[in-house]
Amino acid sequence: MKKTILRVALVSVAALSVGSPALAEHSWGTYHWSKGTNQLGVTVGDNVDSRWDQYLVVALGVDASGNPFEGAKPSWNDSSVIASPLVAGATDPKRCKAAAGKIEVCNARYGRTGWLGVAGISISGGHIVSGYTKVNDTYFDTAKYNTPGWRRLVMCQEIGHDYGLGHTDETFANTNHGTCMDYTDDPDGTIKNQLSNEYQNAHDFVQLETIYGHSHQATTNFGERKLGAAPAAAEAALEGGNSPADWGRAVAYDGKGRPHIFEKNEGGRKIITHVFWTLEHKGGGSQDH
Ligand SMILES: [Zn+2]
Ligand SMILES: [Zn+2]
Asked: How many CB atoms sit inside 10 A of residue 135's CB?
């Protein structure tokens, strides 16, 4: 355990000494799932309908039959530390409730909430224990957002949050970084003739290696946990809600000054919610300070 802490500390120092602001800002702290020496095997539940299936498969890089989806573009399973199978969904997409040890991905018409996508993670004992991604058809059914670019960007980014990654940049109108973890108003890069933000880039994979560069004992690993082990109370299923009232206090603001990361404590666990607002959404502002 001591060794693990030391290693995390060394990694942090190394990241800082590189002097890269992008690296330093990329993760939410260093939230990560617990894993052993194997790759992270947390399952991703498919609760999306046929309009979203292809985007989920492309973002994850594996299909529902367990076959790798070898597109020309990167995917989360291209990471050396991730081996996430796509499995049948276990929740009503409207609620998108994720049990301990699982990521659930959902789409529905969540209403005029102001957001395109939301990712939530539950943290217990210092590690992510469940996560969900929701994409809002109320906006993706409109001409502006019903494009492959917007769908790829938001699906890729929200699942990235479920693995513990943060954004590389939070300003919408500046130059694309070429990763889905960068906010943009030009997802596929065709409006401003720039890099596409629809997929992961090499920096995302380096960041994952950094935050997953240590191992834990098998009893706490969701990838390796023995079947039938009872979850702790703090590992109750995660259900996120659709509005700031459900998410707790605002802890960070996006480039348009809107609160986009929320935190709350509930029953011995911390729940963090990351919100991808539409370009037009006003409100939130800073009244939650
Ligand atoms: Zn750890
Ligand atoms: Zn985000």
From this structure: 30
